[in-house]
Design brief:
The protein has 169 residues and is mainly beta. It is built from 1 helix and 7 strands. It has one helix spanning 54-58; strands at residues 33-34, 40-41, 78-85, 91-102, 107-118, 131-136, 144-152. The strands form 2 sheets. The protein has a 5-stranded mixed beta barrel with strand order 3-4-5-7-6. A hairpin with a 5-residue loop joins strand 1 and strand 2. The protein is elongated, with a radius of gyration of 19 Å. It starts with 32 loop residues before the first strand and ends in a 17-residue tail after the last strand.
Length: 169
Amino acid sequence: MTNFDAGEQTERGFQKQGNVFCATRRVVKSKFQKNSKGNLRQWKNVGLGFKTPKEAVEGSYVDNKCPWTGNVSIRGRILRGVIRSTKMNRTVVVRRDYLHWVTKYQRYEKRHRNFAAHCSPAFVVKKIGDEVVAGQCRPLSKTVRFNVLKINPKGKQRLESRFKKFQKF
């Protein structure tokens, strides 16, 4: 019999993965894998060359909006940016800097756009300034349409970048 872990139960409603029956008394052959703790857990590979984080497989968190353990598929655009805010619960604000060509002056001007992205509990460490790769998914809330797929810590950002990156105006 699997042990019940009340550590993840922080919401008012009971949090569980939709397809996994957590009160089973016998171990049946199923499409769900067991993690190292012996608990049944459902996870998937999102594809597109992104690896499933170890925390998504081994962890015990429950998140319906997680691309690995929830009911969300990644399709459409893949965007890269820098984390600007982590104040929201499981959501980060990402800033994308880009250059816009002004034909009158034959020069580029710096512009930026912010977008909100859902950050799964599989990513334990996330700080302002970390580089993020986010994939487009269905609308998760009023403003969130992207899901974080990869986080590069601030010190280990792209070394192969050939272009100078700008931070602020």
